[in-house]
Every structure is written in structure tokens, then in C-alpha cells.
Specification:
The chain is of the alpha/beta class and 325 residues long. The protein folds into 2 domains: 10-214, 3-Layer(aba) Sandwich (Rossmann fold), CATH 3.40.50.700; 220-313, Cytochrome-c3 hydrogenase, C-terminal domain (Cytochrome-c3 Hydrogenase, Chain A, domain 2, Irregular), CATH 4.10.480. Helices cover 35% and strands 9% of the residues. It is built from 12 helices and 7 strands. The radius of gyration is 21 Å and the shape is globular. Bound molecules: iron/sulfur cluster (SF4) (3 copies). One iron/sulfur cluster is lined by residues 55-56, 58-59, 113-114, 149-151, 156-157, 183-184.
Length: 325
């Protein structure tokens, strides 16, 4: 079978197929074959536009830093990235012309990184015009729209400032927006979603926050290896005490009980580790309330943490049954 990402090994590609294939009710082999077939039949490389609003470019860096498949393979072999401020070779008027030409033709996948200011357009001007206008123009002709990262999905860190920052779905209300939250975006969430769309021509099933259920269907807390300590009220209070190193991080601000994402299972940096296993609590970066609604990040003194404990005491966060633990 011809593999869809030429230089990518079969093993690496199958890893990417796993979750998406399950959602479609296909085996990984069947899904890989379908991706091959769809991409081989496509008249050209699927065009992608990547816009950046109020962002730190961290999501671009997360995407570009992926080892499997490498960004070069992903972009150069199978997707035509027509516009990306940080990654494209062109700049200035040439870059803007490429953007407008692609928008005019329509039918592209639109990825948006960063939030949009609503207090005043001048908080985010790109190419001499309000970012909001470019977004609206591109969204009108896009085949699919993916909000990439916490800023583009729900406002993220910029929403804690004075710009009235919002996510894409507050500006574009007449089309479905796929929200791939977390700060930064998880590369596998993004590539898997693009593969799903290219293979089926459809938006994947979304939860009520607009996130693909295949990645955001379960609570961090329900898959956390520290869970038995939470259930037994054993909370880490001193990071310097080796005896406490595996205890629950609730008192250090962990918002895992209120956060939906597959981080404990998928992990980050190509499966190497993730926040909680590094000893830092979950900051809730996959949720619409991130950042302001999840602060303080490293203590349990905020309203969100108090609410978690109140629900625990009321029996609303029951201990995991033995077979679930
Ligand atoms: S979601 Fe996080 S990493 Fe991505 S642009 Fe916003 S602040 Fe940066
Ligand atoms: S509160 Fe955080 S560290 Fe503790 S069990 Fe839940 S997710 Fe894990
Ligand atoms: S564990 Fe929590 S803070 Fe860390 S990436 Fe996942 S959702 Fe974000």
C-alpha cells in the first residue's frame, strides 16, 4: 500500500491514524488506505491558509516542532500551505497577494491561531488592515475552519487583557468552527482533525464547546495516575519533599477535575510526558475559561479550586471504582 506521507514511516503514520480510525469505525489499515486514496485522487494538494491574530506564535512552534510526521513532510508533500506569516518564504506584498488569490478561489482549509479583539480593531492590524476583516473574508470562502489553540478557540490569555479578545466562533457565527484548544495546540489533535476532514469531507463530531470528541471526550482527572491520592485526600504540599512526589496536585492548583483533554493518554512531545507527570498541575488550558477563569494556577486558593473541593466533599466527584483506577 502506498503510504500517504511519502517519507514518513508506516509505524509513525499508523500512530496518527489510530484515534481517527476508531472514530470512523475503521481499522487503522483501512483508514490509512482511505487517506491514501483520497489524497491520490485530489486534483492538487489541499490548500491551507493559516492566519495569526492576537497570538504568541506558540501554536505554530508546537506544530512545526512535531517530529512525526515532520512539518516538512506534512507541508511539502501533501498540503499546500498558501499563507503562514512565520513559515512561508514570501513576505510583504507577494505574501498578501498569495493570500488574496487563495481566498478568491475558495475551498481551502482555514486555520486560525490567535484571538480577535472586539474592544477596538486597532489592537490587531495585519498587513495594514484589521485582522477581523481578513478573518471574515477568508472564513466566507473556506471549506473548513479550524481554530488552533486556546487564543483562537475561546480568547485564551489575551482575553484576560483589555482588548476584548474572543475566539473565532464569536466572530464567525454562520459556519461550524472546529475548536482545537490547549495552549499551545497539540500537533496530533490538529493533524488528526485535518486527516479526518480530508478523508471524510466532514467536520468530526464535536462536543458542546466545539472540540472534537475524539480528543476532548474525557476528563484529565479520570485518567490521572495520581487519582487515588485525590480520592484519599492526600495532596502534595511541598514540591521539595521526595515522599510526596506522586501525590495529587490539587493544592498546587491542578484543574484536572474540570478539564477535558486526552493529555494523560496521548501525552506531549511525541508521547514523552505531560504537565501532571512532570509535577505541575493541569492549568485547564483546554477549557473556555482558560486563562483568567483558571487562576491562580499554582495554588488552590481560587474560586475554581474551591468549587472542585466543594463538589468532592458533596460526593459529586466520587472516587474511581477499582476497575476504573
Ligand atoms: S494558544 Fe497559547 S501558544 Fe497558542 S497562540 Fe495562544 S498563547 Fe500562544
Ligand atoms: S486533581 Fe489533578 S493531580 Fe489530582 S488526581 Fe485530579 S488531575 Fe490528577
Ligand atoms: S494537562 Fe492541562 S494544562 Fe497541561 S496541556 Fe493538558 S489541558 Fe493543558
Amino acid at each position: 500500500m502506498e503510504m500517504p506521507f511519502g517519507s514518513i514511516s508506516r509505524r509513525d503514520f499508523m500512530k496518527y491514524c489510530a484515534t481517527t480510525a476508531a472514530v470512523l469505525g475503521l481499522s487503522e489499515l483501512e483508514f490509512a488506505a482511505k487517506v491514501s486514496e483520497v489524497l491520490a485522487a485530489a486534483p492538487g494538494k489541499p490548500p491551507v491558509i493559516w492566519l495569526e491574530g492576537q497570538d504568541c506564535a506558540g501554536c505554530s512552534i508546537s506544530f512545526a516542532g512535531s517530529l512525526y510526521p515532520s512539518i516538512a513532510s506534512m507541508l511539502l508533500q501533501r498540503v499546500s500551505l498558501r499563507y503562514h506569516e512565520a513559515l512561508m518564504a514570501a513576505s510583504g506584498h507577494v505574501a498578501e497577494a498569495a493570500l488574496h488569490e487563495t481566498i478568491k478561489k475558495g475551498g481551502f482549509v482555514l486555520c486560525v491561531e490567535g484571538s480577535i479583539p472586539t474592544a477596538d480593531d486597532r489592537f490587531c492590524m495585519v498587513g495594514g488592515r484589521p485582522f477581523r476583516e481578513t478573518l471574515e473574508e477568508a472564513a466566507a470562502k473556506a471549506a473548513a475552519i479550524i481554530a488552533v489553540g486556546a487564543c483562537a478557540t475561546y480568547g485564551g490569555i489575551p482575553a484576560a487583557g483589555p482588548t476584548g479578545a474572543v475566539g473565532v466562533n464569536k466572530i464567525i457565527t454562520d459556519k461550524p468552527i472546529i475548536n482545537i484548544s490547549t495552549c499551545p495546540v497539540h500537533t496530533e489533535h490538529l493533524i488528526g482533525t485535518i486527516l479526518y476532514y480530508l478523508t471524510t469531507g466532514k467536520v468530526p463530531p464535536l462536543d458542546k464547546q466545539g472540540r472534537p470528541k475524539m480528543y476532548f471526550g474525557e476528563l484529565i482527572h479520570d485518567n490521572c495516575r495520581r487519582r487515588s491520592y485525590f480520592d484519599n485526600d492526600t495532596f502534595l504540599s511541598d514540591w521539595n519533599d521526595p515522599n510526596q512526589k506522586n501525590w495529587c496536585l490539587y493544592e498546587k492548583g491542578c484543574k484536572g477535575p474540570d478539564t477535558y483533554s486526552d493529555c494523560p493518554v496521548r501525552r506531549w512531545n511525541d508521547g514523552l510526558n505531560f504537565c501532571i507527570d512532570c509535577g505541575a498541575g493541569c492549568m485547564g488550558c483546554a477549557e473556555p475559561e482558560f486563562y483568567a477563569g483558571m487562576t491562580p494556577l499554582y495554588t488552590a486558593e481560587g474560586e475554581r479550586s474551591r468549587n472542585i473541593m466543594a463538589r468532592k466533599k458533596a460526593g459529586l466527584i466520587p472516587p474511581l471504582k477499582e476497575e476504573e483506577a
